[in-house]
């Protein structure tokens, strides 16, 4: 469904991603892992078209998106939950969700009821400003906003970062439901091992800008964790 091949990316003189390949089958959940600063966010932003790729190809559903703008990638069915959530603090919860509707292929302007079913707190707080929400509520809002475009691929960048444990569990369950019961394909960056093991089918490890390992999540051994993930 998603195929990244030969991706190289630079910040000025600094070569950040080196010949990265990544393949995601329809319906699976792949977790990209690695220590801080190895290039995980850069990889997701390159897939989303938020950063220019120096070389490489990004195909989604058989279409070459390499030269397409971020809006077109969203319109193709890719929902994105950025690191740090990036919700609009002065817009209400409802208005934040409506921004996600703009990329819908069917041009519907109605917030899907499913979003409020998954995250009831967003319904309760729909007239409150985004900036008034707690971190966990903002994360639910960021996921809801990405779901508003009715994506077939959901990309999440560290959705559990700085979130209290009960909300982490809840977000994990929602991702699992969307992935396993509703067939949504998921590409996730996550540093929490337990969360990755509970949520993902496969993992890919990035180290200093290169992919160094990739396998079924059950094969994520203590050796790999020690070598590439623990600090
Ligand atoms: N806008 C930027 N300009 C220059 N260098 C950057 C920029 N953004 C990131 N970098 C550098 O690129 C490298 C990869 O950063 P990136 O954010 O992709 O890593 P990461 O694996 O997502 O890290 P983290 O887990 O801390 O989010 C790091 O060395 C970082 O300092």
UniProtKB/TrEMBL annotation:
Keyword vocabulary terms for this entry: Amino-acid transport, ATP-binding, Nucleotide-binding, Transport
GO molecular function, one term: ATP binding
Record's signal peptide: none
Keyword field contains Nucleotide-binding: yes
Residue ranges of every copy of the ABC transporter domain listed in the record: 2-231
Transferase listed as a keyword: no
InterPro entries in alphabetical order: AAA+_ATPase, ABC_transporter-like_ATP-bd, ABC_transptr_urea_ATP-bd_UrtE, BCAA_Transport_ATP-bd_LivF, P-loop_NTPase
Highest taxon above the source species: Bacteria
Family membership noted in the UniProt record: Belongs to the ABC transporter superfamily.
Name recorded for this polypeptide: Amino acid ABC transporter ATP-binding protein
Species in which this protein is naturally found: Alloalcanivorax venustensis ISO4
């Amino acid at each position: 469904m998603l195929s990244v091949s030969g991706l190289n990316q630079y910040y000025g003189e600094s070569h950040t991603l080196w010949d990265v390949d990544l393949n995601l089958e329809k319906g699976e959940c792949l977790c990209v892992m690695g220590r801080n600063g190895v290039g995980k966010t850069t990889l997701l932003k390159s897939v989303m078209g938020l950063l220019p790729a120096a070389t490489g190809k990004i195909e989604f559903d058989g279409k070459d998106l390499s030269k397409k703008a971020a809006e077109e990638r969203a319109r193709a069915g890719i929902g994105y939950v950025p690191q740090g959530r990036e919700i609009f603090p002065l817009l209400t919860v409802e208005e934040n969700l409506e921004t996600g509707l703009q990329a819908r292929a069917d041009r519907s302007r109605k917030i899907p009821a499913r979003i409020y079913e998954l995250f009831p707190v967003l319904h309760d707080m729909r007239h409150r400003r985004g900036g008034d929400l707690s971190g966990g509520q903002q994360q639910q809002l960021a996921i809801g906003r990405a779901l508003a475009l009715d994506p077939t691929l959901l990309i999440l960048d560290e959705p559990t970062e700085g979130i209290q444990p009960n909300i982490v569990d809840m977000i994990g369950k929602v991702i699992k439901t969307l992935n396993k019961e509703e067939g949504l394909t998921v590409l996730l960056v996550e540093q929490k091992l337990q969360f990755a093991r509970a949520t993902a089918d496969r993992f890919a490890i990035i180290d200093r800008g290169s992919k160094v390992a990739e396998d079924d999540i059950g094969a994520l051994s203590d050796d790999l964790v020690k070598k590439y993930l623990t600090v």
